[in-house]
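We modelled the chain as a single entity of 390 amino acids. Its sequence is:
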Amino acid sequence: MPEYSIALSPEVPPGMAEEFAKRVYYAASEIRGFSLVRGENGEVREVEFATEDEVDAAEIGRKLNLVAQRDVLPQGEAEEVAVVWQSMAMPRAPRIGFEDLERHGLVTRTGDGAYGASGVLAQLLYKIDHRVRVLAVEGFGAVDNWYPALIPTDVLHRAGYFDSFPQFLMTVGRFHSDADVYQGFAAEFEAARDKAKFMDSRTEHVGHCLSPTVCYHSYHQYAGREVPDEGAVLTATGKIFRFESRYHHTLERLWDFTMREVVFFGGRKAVTDLRQNLLTAVCALVDDLRLAAHVEVANDPFFSNGADAKRAMVQRALRMKFELHMPVVDGQTISVGSFNLHGSKFGEAFGITTPGGQPAYSGCIGIGLERIAYAFLCRHGLDPSGWPEF
């Protein structure tokens, strides 16, 4: 594979290297692998990358520098991570790794970033989902919901998803409604050298995307409705789709994964209190399951324009997003859940109001089931007889 080296100007400070690394693959689809070249003080001076074919290195360099200058540098160097909660259980050496799940036939790879689960892993996913559902329904009066995998494209646009996370978006297409397209498809597909381009030429967007999160369905559901000041709470489990490019890795980052969410609307105080009380309840569940974990202040991976860097800074400063982290293998930790405040953004966008006619505030928590199950098995192993009681 051809290899190239591109200088960054200005250089990326050491405290921002991780934020930059998260975005490299999204800068140009031609990049198949990369490494960051650092200076004596840890600053990122260059990006070395490989591609499958010869490319215009200067053009890719322009895009890498654009991402650094637009999405990363305006955030400023990250301060020390602010931890707001620590579990009673302390980290320890993992009892299993991902290769153990594969060896025991508990995961089946169905494609890049997509895995099926069976046996004790499948049982564990159901058990964790059930515990979080009961927590929401019995503890907070959440109403159960069931949403489709598809979501209207205009709902995501209305929610501002295109302005914030275009790198994750996965759209839905179908064949052109044409008898000739159907008749010749099989033979022409077999003969096509570039099958991806062949498919693109015969499909059309049908006004839907694969859902990138559960809560957008809730905003659509509540559009134009009034909610009580003291709060309306709902919960659902859904399949989530986010294009992770070449960042996907075991069960830690998937294109296709499952999330249990709890979404809440109401007045500002009610929503703020609900986020805190749900955080407390989930942390108690984590302790009950004897899992090592901590909750830290975080921000979303905005990727669109210079204003998004400021949004990330505001999120951190106002503590609008917390993430629940758990250790897995090789000293790594992964985010298995988040606890979010949205202000009145979605109330305004979808016409959701409180009895006084003001835009409702909203918030949500999301627990990634595959991620927390993986952290659980790393901690407790594959034998259910040694697990905490569910």
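As a brief sanity check on the tokenised model: The CA atoms of residues 241 and 256 lie 5 Å apart. The chain has three domains: 3-75, 83-165+212-386, 171-208.
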